[in-house]
Design brief:
This protein is mainly beta and 755 residues long. It contains nine helices and 43 strands. The strands form ten sheets. The protein has an eight-stranded antiparallel β-barrel. A five-stranded antiparallel sheet has the order 1-10-11-13-14, with no helix packed on it. Strands 2-9-8-4-5 form a five-stranded mixed sheet. It is globular.
Length: 755
Amino acid sequence: MKRITAKALSLLLCSSLLLSLASCGTKSENDAPQNENAGQEAGTQTDGSENDAPEQNDDSQGETAPEEAEAYHFTPTASELANADYDVRVRENRNEDGSKKYVLSDIAPTICYDNLSLGYLTPGATTYTLNLAEGVTIDDVSLSAVDENYASLSVEDLAVWDSESRTLTANGSASENGVVFLDLVQGGEVVFTVNVRVTAAYPDDPDYDINAESIKDDELEFLFDYNADGELDENYNVHDPALTEAVIDGVRYYYMVQTGWAGGNIIRRSTDLIHWEYLGKTTPAAEKMAEYGWSEVDAWMLTDSANCQYWAADLVPASYGGYWLYTCLVNSGYDEEKHDRVCIVLAWSPTLEARSFQYVGCILQSISDYAQDALYYNVVALDPQVAYDAAGNMYLTFGSFGAGTYMIELDSETGLRKDGETEWLDEDTINTYMEEARATAIGETHPYYGTHMTYCAEGSVITHQYDVPLVSEDGEITEIYDDYYYLMTCLGVLSRNYVLFTAKSDTIDAFSNLSGDPMASGWIGKELVTGLFPPLSGYRSDLDRESYITTADRIEGSTEYIAMSSFQWADYDFDIHAPGHGDLYTTSDGVNIAMLMVRTLALQSDKTAECDNGYPLAASSTKFFMQAHQYYLNSVGDIVINANRYAGEPDRPVSKEEFLSFANDNQFQLVLAGDPYVTTTAVYVTLGEDGSVTGDAAGSWSMYGDRYIRLDIDGYDTYYGVVAVSWLDNKNCVGMTVTAMGQSTGWPLYMNSES
């Protein structure tokens, strides 16, 4: 989730001045790139044209030397993109003391119409009542509506408005989905807008490429073929996805950036978070890199920017319009000792088109041996992700394995470091800073690398949730957190036992695991200590791996919240393997999305491997792709991720009667996730009307509140979770799903109805 304070374009000149003071060089404002090659056909960049300096002719001796090219200077231009960020609107609805400014009720609610005419929907699922903040008076509520593609339509096609009670009710005979905008009018001006999503109570077929039929018909291999541009369209071979939203020409788009390897990050867009259009690379073609400022990185990276690899990135709205891109560049193994040059930099685009991103400035630098130090020891400037606290302060989390993840504060006006450090630092300084930073304890702060957040993890992302209720098993709200922060990180061998950890906190800079210890403290050196050490392709055989693993801070038995690990439904050949590095994003409609990189073993015959001690574990998979999953908050405030892919389904109240109605003879498939080194396969259970769980597992269950569930599984754990309507991956039809978190093990539980 990302937030930036809304800025009018009138701030453009002021922001430009701040950037001028912060960045290096003196290039004239008239020399700023005008993005004339934005949207060019994407292709593999070459290094044949990066040195364009004119050759010196002997006849020129004694003549006036040609003028040197002016240094690059970033100056933003005007942007017509409309920011659709949910958090901006949350902040607009808050006073300085944190109280609600305009609206007490949800500012991005969902109401549903019964598209299957099943009769289970409660008023909580079909109606929304606008409750104003204390002391607020308005002259009118003006209504308008759009369909899913943001084309205008009549409000009555979606819902019925009662102006006296200020209640909006979904039209029971609606035939399409859309959004109703409730504009609050004071003195003839719109002061705030509530977006009410109106959608079918039950999702339609999302037309996934991967489904039960395509797997049965053996139609999968083509999905991983490369297109003519050397990249993959749709969702496949997507590494490290990150999301944002923008409205362009009246259409709301989701944009995703990802690791792009050589030549820039890959950028894609979608209107539904399911089907994605490949746009190209973020950076310009090689011959344009200097013009767009990217040659500023060359000296540190010891190679041209066009030759660097561009790994995980993040996109957020910029204060002066357009969007900021935080990306990391890698020059891997540049010397005989296989060291890497790494940096995190800021770029900007006014259009979000391919090839349109201009270099702004340097954020962080590091040097590492990725095959060794980065895995077990060093501070690494990789995996940048932006987060904001309740006061609007801007932060950047980063880090990859080794010493773990860190967080620095950014300037929300310029997007650069808050401390004003914008110069490129020399190698000796960076080596000194890394030595100092990796010695810091969790919670301690280094002047350059910031606050040490976690041990030995990577891919950190922080999402900010608002008005988080804690609900008792009597269905009563016992406490509401105005602001709650969730940190998600990854750990494990990327293609084999990658796993997602989560943690929660009421502050943005301090997270602990289920045991109350620093995150990942039980995992430091786990592969070595337990003997579970699969072969690593990049591992340096000439070095003693034990000397590179620091286990002094390891806490035996320390328990993490595992948001998702490898699993498989009993009747579905396509497994979810090594889920990891992704994003947590809340859409402008208030939908919480976990955009994850996952793999599968379905396309290979070797599904298991053996470790040093003979322990069997899941094999390595080279097939990676992206999936959007909706996530929820259970009654104790834990993040729980739907095991099924997102299909546009609403997060809405579900009764016990409706829940069981989708299960033939009350039967469900149950996944009791645990060991992240293996793939957990579902078993079959029956949920009795009397609250019993029988079948391949035994225990009890109960529902409370509007969709919360508790399950006690004998020999496993007590799980708190959420019941949700979903498009079931293993059945390729609509049904009911449960996602829950174990309260002592920290392991997730998943259930799909046998529909």
